[in-house]
Design a protein that fits this description.
Elements lengths: L15 H10 L16 H13 L3 H14 L36 H18 L2 H19 L24 H21 L4 H16 L15 H9 L5 H15 E2 L3 E2 L7 E3 H13 L3 H10 L13 E3 L4 E2 L6 H15 L19
Antiparallel strand pairs: 1-2, 3-4, 4-5
Helix pairs in contact: 1-12, 2-3, 2-4, 2-12, 3-4, 4-5, 4-6, 5-6, 6-7, 6-8, 8-9, 8-10, 10-11, 10-12, 11-12
Length: 360
Amino acid sequence: MTHLTYGDPIPEDFFDGARSRILDLQRDNGAIPWYDGGVIDPWNHTEAAMGLTVIGEIERARLAFRYLMETQLKDGSWWGQLGSAVPFDEDDHYTGGDEGAGKPIRDTNFTAYIATGAWHHYLITRDRQWLGTIWPHVEAAMQFVVAHQSPHGDIRWAANDPHTPEDDSLITGSSSIYKSLECAIHIAQELGKSSHDWAAARTRLGEALRDKPHRFDRTWESKARYSMDWYYPVLAGVITGEAARRRLASKWDIFVAEGKGCRCVLDQPWVTVAESAELVMALLVAGERQKAEALLSWQHQWRADCGAYWMGYQFVENVAWPAEKPAWTAAAVILATDAVTGTTPASRLFAERTLAEAAE
């Protein structure tokens, strides 16, 4: 296992397997599905594009962003999923981040994530012309998202389509939107565009996430058993400082398997590499660098012989499960490694909150 710290160079060829996995999955039109035969969704597609940007595959990353620009719907959103995925049965308990699989969903979090990807890409390339090209798509996406904010500050999880009647909000999704609003505001400021409405929306969303827990999971079972609901408010910068450290400490023993990683759900002996990588970045935001470095070092044992990363590991049966190596899993490890080592100019984006709220 490789234990990297800030300032350490990423070992040469270290991510060759992860690079090859993402590139092999990417289609000629730029789309990056989860895995062979898997769905395409705009959030995980964008995550994979950011991974490509970090490792220097700029043109392939731009091909991925071009796919987003070409498939955006007229209202600024995207369909949540395209294609078909390997089905998980009820006993598998893998439903995190996959609300309503198979239904035509326009997910607000998925829609917002283009802003995070675009700002991340710009921080590395400093290509202002490219940023101006993608701006209308970021603007349309964020206008769609903000239009679904309630008077209480929370943001509806999806557009009110026939298949998504639940008027409700998700902690993980809303936290991710909070980060995307941060990035959208940075883009607007860089291009001299107005961002006042987005700043106000972000402040209201932050207040809802911190102070109005009753606004989330109102119409369905609580998602508290999923680790993402625990660490995402910290990762996104909604909660910072000592409050962030207290939050991560409060459930560390039930979500983290020592020497292995972060569980997807608290009641299953299954660590997932992407969630572990995201928790690495949340720890950095909270100022817990030593824990972040250790947790990242554990993830490299879950690499396949080809160098790509398994989705997760079931540590009672001692098997990689499921037998998939998602593009977004590889990208999450790449992003976490960049955040820990400070390799690229975008490394701070997922290691700290880079913008105060409007009221601060």
